[in-house]
Amino acid sequence: MTTRTYSVPGISCGHCKAAIEGELDGAAGVDSVVVDVDAKTVQVTGDISEDAVRAAVDEAGYEVASVS
After folding, report:
1. Which pTM value belongs to this model?
2. What secondary structure letter does DSSP report for 60?
């Protein structure tokens, strides 16, 4: 199991948080998702590829800037 933090500069409100959580909560391999509106980050824990996370964030209408 891996935990990665994704920088998503477009996060600005609770709606952003809910949209991203909604896409990732249903993704295969995701154990937990933490969206921090103030830090503009998404922390994902589970067995999911970076590409799959990027695709889910994109589907929610946002773009991943970097991964740590």
Report:
1. 0.94
2. T
